[in-house]
Amino acid sequence: KKKINDGLEKTRTGFFAGIVNTLTNSQIDDDLYNDLEEQLILADVGPDCAIRLVDELRDKVREEHLKTGEQALKALRELIRLEMSPTDDLDLSGKPAVILVIGVNGVGKTTTIAKLAYLYKDLGKKVMLAAGDTFRAAASEQLELWAERAEVPLVKAGEGADPAAVIFDAVKSAAAKGYDMVIADTAGRLHNKKGLMDELSKITRSVKKASPEASLEVLLVLDAITGQNAISQAQEFCRAAGATGVVLTKLDGTPKGGCVIGVRQKLGLPIRFVGVGEKIDDLLFFSATDFSEALLP
Ligand code: GDP
């Protein structure tokens, strides 16, 4: 099974190797801080966040009287860990625990739903899927194949059916049959914010109607390869959709894994999972400690 180290290989051997190299081979001075800022921006951390991290590092070096590059590296690793630390756990307390998955086409939404089902099933949970993306017939078909592979039941309806009705049926059935979780696909479309808000609030209401005991998380799936470019679009999207967390896919496919930090900072949402490959077990729980240690070993 892959680890975060494998997923971050391109990033670690790319931009972050440069950062380690800069830190361990230079004197701590203004040039170093400028270099570092530039490299963090190249690694897709995002300008605001890069500037702030470097400012915080500068303060830390001064306050703690750090002398060597090794010490500064350790300090930066700790700052990144703090930056990425979530404030609480994913809420899976409901009966069932419902996870709505949103994101634009091609980011890896379907694959992520299958991976989530597999991950939680492996942890002993009874998981049901709901094909709430009724906008594209292909989406339900894809999800059906994945549900078979993950060996979990799928609730679906025909093309054009009401997503809220599909998700209502799934939650109702899960509650009646004692399933722990429902992971639901949605047809969250970015180009119409009002439509998206209406649709998601309708879905939320139908979840509560199907089971008043249900808990709800809304995970936004983003593609790490598009990185910073996707963020401004996502900002509006995730606010409208009431997202509670982020899944970053395709971390294995980019040397710009610094975007994980930028996304956390820009969206103000915890990163919950990262995708590190195309296989069903290539989804990892996000850990700020593992991430910062893999990034700056
Ligand atoms: P959707 O349109 O958002 O539902 O996207 P899909 O789930 O169909 O995925 C689109 C493509 O991205 C597929 O070829 C997936 O195999 C690929 N993909 C998804 N997640 C990952 C990942 O974490 N790593 C890699 N390398 N590929 C991924």
From TrEMBL:
Reactions accelerated catalytically: GTP + H2O = GDP + phosphate + H(+)
Pfam families, alphabetized: SRP54, SRP54_N
Binding locations of GTP: 103-110, 185-189, 249-252
EC number: 3.6.5.4
Residues annotated as domain SRP54-type proteins GTP-binding: 270-283
Coiled coil regions, renumbered to chain: none
UniProt keywords, alphabetically: Cell membrane, Cytoplasm, GTP-binding, Hydrolase, Membrane, Nucleotide-binding, Receptor
Cell compartment(s), UniProt: Cell membrane; Cytoplasm
Membrane-topology annotation of the record: Peripheral membrane protein
Subunit structure: Part of the signal recognition particle protein translocation system, which is composed of SRP and FtsY.
Function text: Involved in targeting and insertion of nascent membrane proteins into the cytoplasmic membrane. Acts as a receptor for the complex formed by the signal recognition particle (SRP) and the ribosome-nascent chain (RNC).
Family: Belongs to the GTP-binding SRP family. FtsY subfamily.
Record-given protein name: Signal recognition particle receptor FtsY
Species in which this protein is naturally found: Gemmiger gallinarum
Name of the gene: ftsY
